[in-house]
Amino acid sequence: MDERVLVLTPEARDVRAVLQQLAAAGIDAQATSAAELVTAVRDCTLGAALLTVEALDQYDIGAVTAAVEAQPAWSDCPILLLTRRGHVARADRDAIIERANVTLLERPLQPATLVAAARAALRARARQRKSELYLHARDAAEAQLREAAATLEARVAERTATLTQVVAALNPTDAVSDFAREIARRASARDLGTRLLACGIHPRCA
Predict the structure, then answer these.
(1) Given this model, what pLDDT does residue 118 score?
(2) How far apart are CA 107 and CA 98, in angstroms?
(3) CA end-to-end span of the chain, whole Å?
């Protein structure tokens, strides 16, 4: 699913030529609609997109731009844009070129050039996927540490309250009370240090 190159162009001949050239190189390429492309970019379910300037002229560029901007932080979907020499520029088309990860390929181009560009785009996407896995793992580890810290704080509060009740029942002097609180504090610190080490973090670095 994530290795697909989605091809969007209004010309059926262009679609067939691109699909044949990429398939011959072992690249999974599929023709798509504008709506399907927008969804795939937004949901990160493609490896790269290949469009022609004619597609940008015919379809809603604003929807494509919005999908690009809605990507998660790790994602920067590669877009290959096939242009023609002398094609008149448009402000809305230029906007997506500036905001998206776009590689311009001027036609006519050799099949080897198209294949090389597609492979480079897919390699870039694979590196982004590695970043996604790292970020997810980091977020999960941080959530686990927050949960452990919250649990430890609750236990510390419970132990301190219990010890305070015991000391109050014995009607100790202020010195004994201070001593009891110090014992509770040190026990809590040892407990916290043990938990942090178990999570792979040295207490002095926490």
Answers:
(1) 96
(2) 20
(3) 40
Those residues with Cβ within 8 angstroms of residue 59's Cβ, 6 or more apart along the chain or in another chain: 8, 34
The residue type found at 40 is A
What count of other Cβ atoms lies within 10 Å of the Cβ of residue 72?
12
Cβ-contact 49, 8 below 8 angstroms: yes
pLDDT on residue 91: 59
Give the strands of the sheet with 5-8, arranged side by side: 29-31, 5-8, 48-52, 78-84, 101-107
CA 202 to mean position of chain CA atoms: 28
Q: How many CA atoms lie within 13 A of 128 on its CB side?
A: 22
CA dihedral 186, 188, 191, 192 (to 10 degrees): -110
Pairwise pLDDT comparison (168 vs 80), residue with the higher score? 80
pTM above 0.70, yes or no: no
Pairwise CA distance, residues 67 & 69, whole Å: 5
- If one compares 65 and 173, the residue with the highest pLDDT of the two is 65
**pLDDT reported for residue 12:** 86
Q: Is the pLDDT of residue 50 over 60?
A: yes
